[in-house]
Amino acid sequence: MSQPTAPPGYDDRNPLYPPPAGGYHAGHPGGYPQPPPYGGAYPQPGGYPQPGYPQPEGYPRPGGYPQPVPPMPTVPMNFGDDYGGSGGGVPIQITDWDDKKVRHTFIRKVYSIISLQLLVTVAIVAVFTFVDPVSTFVRRNIAVYYSSYAVFLVTYLVLVCCEGPRRRFPWNLILLSVFTLAMGFMTGTIASAHNTKAVLLAMLITAIVSITVTIFCFQTKVDFTSCTGLFCVLGIVVMVTGIITAIVLSFKYIYWLHMLYAAIGAIAFTLFLAYDTQLVLGNRKHSISPEEYVYGALKIYTDIVYIFTFLLQIVGSRD
């Protein structure tokens, strides 16, 4: 009996009538013949090499085809350019954001203290200037000035040189309050020796200069804190000039020398105000620690008061 040369018809493959045990094709026992090989140089299915992917053991491969393996991601996941509100595709830096919040809180605290100090000082100056009995008493008793100067110098040195009292609450605020009162009495005593118009004009110019310098320091890219050595030299020049002027004026009053020293002092402390303001603002080469809010307020307040006293000497004196 000859073997058929083609697969049986559809009816012969009915599962109710299984194929004979010998199969329909010699060499393919119990099944149908394999499809013809692929044309070209492609290997037979099921014979692909698997580079780098070991085959799982224990599971048969139906038909010899490999199971698909999901690829590993090669690019990190991104949540978008504005994720978290950073904007511009720049990721949020939690540390930087915390530092900015701390610095902003520090700036508000410093300028709140300065505002209270200036209010107290202006009130004392107003009493010493506009109340005639007080003004007359202060001018006749110079000991008030020297006593307030001694308190000012002691509290200033303690706050500047001693880090413990400067950072320890409530001693830092107590010392700062005593310092503010002492400097207010000093300024009021100086103002009592000048006429009312000169005091008001000096206050107005001081306010304009202080606000202008503060706004300039907020906006400018010039870093005054990088010129620390220059400001040290400037401070030494002002101190030496003041000593020489005091010695010369104690023997003979020289108007132009007095005005020259007052002008140098006003310019120098305006620059010091810019320097100390940038120390408080931060984001410069040098900055004040957020824990030093008393020290920051002390520096800026002192600069403003010295600008006022030097301008007061330039504007005029009591007749």
UniProtKB/TrEMBL annotation:
Record has Transmembrane as a keyword: yes
InterPro entries in the record: Bax_inhibitor_1-related
GO molecular function: death receptor binding
Keyword list, A-Z: Membrane, Transmembrane, Transmembrane helix
Transmembrane stretches, start-end: 110-131, 143-161, 173-193, 199-218, 230-249, 255-275, 296-316
Gene Ontology cellular component terms for the protein in this record: endoplasmic reticulum; endosome membrane; Golgi membrane; lysosomal membrane
The family this protein is said to belong to: Belongs to the BI1 family.
Protein name per Swiss-Prot or TrEMBL: Transmembrane BAX inhibitor motif containing 1
Membrane topology term: Multi-pass membrane protein
Pfam family, one: Bax1-I
Any one biological process term the GO annotation gives: negative regulation of protein localization to plasma membrane
Subcellular location: Membrane
Region (Disordered): 1-71
Main location: membrane
Annotated Pro residues bias: 46-71
Segment forming the signal sequence: none
